[in-house]
Amino acid sequence: MKYIILFLITFTLSTNVIAQSSDIAWKTWAELEQALKEDPKPVFIYFHASWCAYCKKIKRDIFTKKNIINTLNHKFYAVEMDIETTDTITFDGVTFTNQQARTKRNGIHQLPLLLASTDNKTVTLPATLLCDSTLSIKKRIFSYYTSKTLLDLLNTPYK
Length: 159
Fold this sequence. Notes:
The longest helix has 20 residues, at 2-21. The chain has helices at residues 2-21, 29-38, 53-61, 66-75, 110-115, 147-154; strands at residues 26-27, 43-48, 77-82, 89-91, 94-96, 127-131, 137-141. Strand 6 and strand 7 form a beta hairpin. It has 159 residues and is of the alpha/beta class.
């Protein structure tokens, strides 16, 4: 009986460790702000929506690859955000909301509008941003990408 209990405890603990290391360590905006103060690193931001087929494909086919997970978890802080969230987010002393949600069916939150819009065009999904440790945007990607393409981008220096 002792051995069965010991086995179950060991199995449960090892399963939890494996599960934790097999996912990208996504941070909230508040966690990102604190982490950047304590240990500056480049930042990977992924904007998506529940209706976006390519967003789902990236999550399923790219963000599950071990080499992508390891690179993101070790070299970057990673943040993901549904562009239609109605959460109020405070970052760097500024409060961001989804003001469009009051008047539009698929209103876009202020953060993706600010960070992922270019040339007076609204956000195109999927939207991926690679930033340095000061959140200066170094690369914007507004399309599907392969794991090789993403790895090449992640291995470019973003200090």
